[in-house]
Amino acid sequence: MLQAIDLTKRYEDQQLALDALNLEIKEGEIFFLLGANGAGKTTTINLFLNFIEPTGGRALINGIDVTKEPLESKKYVSYVSENVMLYGNFTARQNLDFFAKLGGKTNLTRDDYYMRMREVGLQEEAFEKKLKTFSKGMRQKVGLTIAIIKDAPNILLDEPTAGLDPKAAAELLQILVNLKRQGKSILMCTHDIFRAKNIADRVGIMKEGRLVMVRTREEFMEDDLEKIYMNYMQEMVIEKV
Amino acid sequence: MLRHLIIKEIQEIITNTRSLFVLLICILLIPLGLYVSSKEYEQNRAAYKDAKQMYEERNKDNKGMEFVAEGYIPPSPLSIFSSGLSVYLPNKITTDSRGVWHEENDYGINNPVALLFGKIDFYFIITIILSLLAFMVTFNSISGEKENGTLRLIVANAVPRWKIIFAKIAGSYTVFLISFLVGVISGLVLLALTTSVPILSVSYLIPFLVIMMISLLFLFILFNIGILLSIKTRNSGASITASLLVWVLIAIIIPKVSPMIAQIIYPIKTEEVVNKQKAMKRDEIRAESDRTSGELMKSIMSERGMNAEKLDFFNMGDDPNVKAALVEYDGMIVDVKRKYDEMEINAIGIIEKDYHNQQLVQQNISKNISRISPIGCYTYLISDLTNTGLIELSNIEYNARQFSSFTESEFYSKLRKYYKEYHIGFNVSKGIFGKVDWNSIHVPTLNTYNYPTMISSLGANWIDLLFICFYSIFFFAVSVFQFIKYDVR
Ligand SMILES: Nc1ncnc2c1ncn2[C@@H]1O[C@H](COP(=O)(O)OP(=O)(O)OP(=O)(O)O)[C@@H](O)[C@H]1O
Ligand SMILES: [Mg+2]
After folding, report:
1. Which of A7, A9, A32, A37 to mutate to test ligand 1, by most ligand atoms within 8 A of the CB atom?
2. How far does residue A63's CA lie from ligand 1's centre (Å)?
3. What is the pTM of this model?
4. Do the chains contact at B488 and A51, CB–CB below 8 Å?
5. Which of B291, B33, B307, B393 is nearest to B180 (CA)?
């Protein structure tokens, strides 16, 4: 379970990137966070991972305050970052092996890694190839495999579909649905409204650091999610004019 | 956990072509440097032996007061690790009957081109080449992982930050160390096989182990500085720029500029000016000495009823009176001359000592400034441990003084005794050489030149040793501390 309680981040340059975010993502729930560039999505994820200190409020992972017990809290979260390069001189399997061990999975075999890579749709011949020869999408898949292998109850994804071809993106979302079925709490930041519509249990729209709208699946299925999103963005444009 | 991090670090480094480059440089340059230095040492050693032997043979029967004794200084065996000042250090001490000693250097230059570019010895390889390679290996150790996004992925796990940075330092340093050790060991093997330097003897190995320990600490400092720079810069491009700048600063600017700053803070006369001062003083005393001996002659003559000024020195004939006066003069003038010689030596000694003290003050100022750079501290330690450093300058003086007094007591004073006897009590029945046992007087040679012991060299440089240890701990601690609050995004 992921919880944000009045979570606030003001950067050193006084930029208010996140303004009192309140959010709870339950087990077996996929939450999509939409929002324009600079809305505060990555900031939210960074706060959950304790990469940055909040200036107010709390972020909890499985009820553990991430600023008070950062190490303990990180046991319960997997992270898929946007555009990760990984270790170019290592093979896909070596990359997986290293991060698996960091995540506490020390007794996985070569076949385990192969199986997981097959699951995310990586081609067999890529398993033992150096990562520097990989395309962006292939790297992204390895990044996702790393998160899956850790098998943590919470998963944070920051624009994981960026750079993936439509088929790969669809496969990734299918994997997320599977993970959700296993009872994981999933927070995914994205610009991909169409995908959100397909698999999200809830969708939030973020604007200038504030969560301006949250809709459940039932609610946004009635309306056109894209229209809602555009309306919220429009307001901003109108305000500014 | 720490183990996995270190293993990954080592794997990552050895799969990088940079480490192959480091290994190649170590394997090629370290043995080459040691080999060339050893060959040069062998040459100098042979030249030293020849010169000494020739001197002894040539001067076997040269037993007069005008004889100038020469002491040849053997090249320092440890100079194969660091040539230091050895090109400029004297290889010969001369001392005369007045007790005046000089240091001379007549090595000559084998290959001026080598001098122009500076030598590649073990010291140079470490302070210039390996220090640069240390930066080359570490510059993107943190900023590179940040760019790859892997740092974020690592930190998203339950891994304490200190373990990450420990593994970084330990892993990269270990790989570097192995390349370095491979180079050193192949160098030692090469020396043992191809040169006469007894590299595997205790007299070499123990100082070498100490030099190695200090070198490893020194490289450790550079590693930590490199990692610190990698932490402090936003991306690897900035890291490499910063590393190069810092390297230029600590390897070139600080060591080379510190004597200049010292000269500005505490200016002293040049050696040339001091030499002029000495010459003036010498002339002054000699003029005085000439005047006194003239007076002496006058008074001896007038005692015997002669007027020295009216005497025709070229047509004195066989006047027994004059002859007797001259013998008396000869007998007395020795002490007079001796008195003035002593005066001259003392006066010049004072000028020299004064100048030497000023030099020392300036030297210490430069030393202290250059200690800002670990290369400064390392240089003082290594050059003194190999007896090619600043201590050697005063050590030569110490040995020269020893040699001078040895020569005086074993050679000149014996001769003087006989000469005195000859002048004062010339005994026809015994003959001039009657009492002289020439065989008891040997041409003085410098048979034992004392180099300072390793312990005393370390003791004299305790401050540099302390600094090296301090820098190691300091930069390590700062790197760890800075990484703990490092922004991984
Ligand atoms: N280190 C920082 N210092 C100051 N301001 C920052 C910093 N990082 C982010 N910001 C600001 O915080 C706000 C939110 O940024 P954030 O990266 O969370 O946006 P985002 O929603 O992830 O955008 P995108 O869709 O482009 O990834 C932006 O206005 C950004 O300028
Ligand atoms: Mg973002």
Report:
1. A37
2. 26
3. 0.89
4. yes
5. B33
